[in-house]
Amino acid sequence: MQNDTYKTLDHPGEETLFKEKGSKFYGYAYPVKNEEEVKVILEELKSKHHSARHWCYAWQIGTENPGFRANDDGEPSNSAGMPIYGQIQSFELTNVLVVVVRYFGGTKLGVGGLIQAYKASAQFALEASTLVEKTIDQHFILEFEYKDMSHVMRVIKEKQLNLIEQEMGLTCKIEISVRKGLAEQVIPAFEPLYQVKVSPV
């Protein structure tokens, strides 16, 4: 069976604090679904920590061909964003954003010190979060006449399909989902009900 699960965060994690030679690194981890959510969170953190020096972050979004971005926000190249992204990979997460906000403490840490500090801060932020495993789901639309409703509902119940949305009228339309590994069972399950049209979304 193909791998049809992924790990992400249940909800935003606790704020964490890592200190190194006077510099303070505040770590945050959030579940995100798109770049719009990333922008909103970054704006909120910038207004919360308006006197900080750097707001470095990395995100990974998507389940099958995930995209990612790592941002050093003025720190030396690859000393902040990539160490943060490395922790997202190490925890095997997706649909997640990790931000580390740095207040400069007066002593330069050097590139090696920065890499360690951002890595540790990202690790703390993820350790302070609740990780969950979710399924990658395939969605289908069922279209049928009202008289077939009870048969359709019986198949949905027997196959433990998730009901997402339903529109009832003279003709009915139901959106269902099932974890990807079981998706190929859906169309055959409705074949005996030949008036029911099943379309993958």
From TrEMBL:
InterPro entries: Impact, Impact_N, Impact_N_sf, Ribosomal_Su5_D2-typ_SF. Gene3D superfamilies: Impact, N-terminal domain. Coiled coil: none annotated. GO terms for cellular component: cytoplasm. Residues 21-125 form the Impact N-terminal domain. GO terms for biological process: regulation of translational initiation. Pfam families: Impact_N. Belongs to the IMPACT family. This is YigZ family protein. It comes from Robertkochia marina.
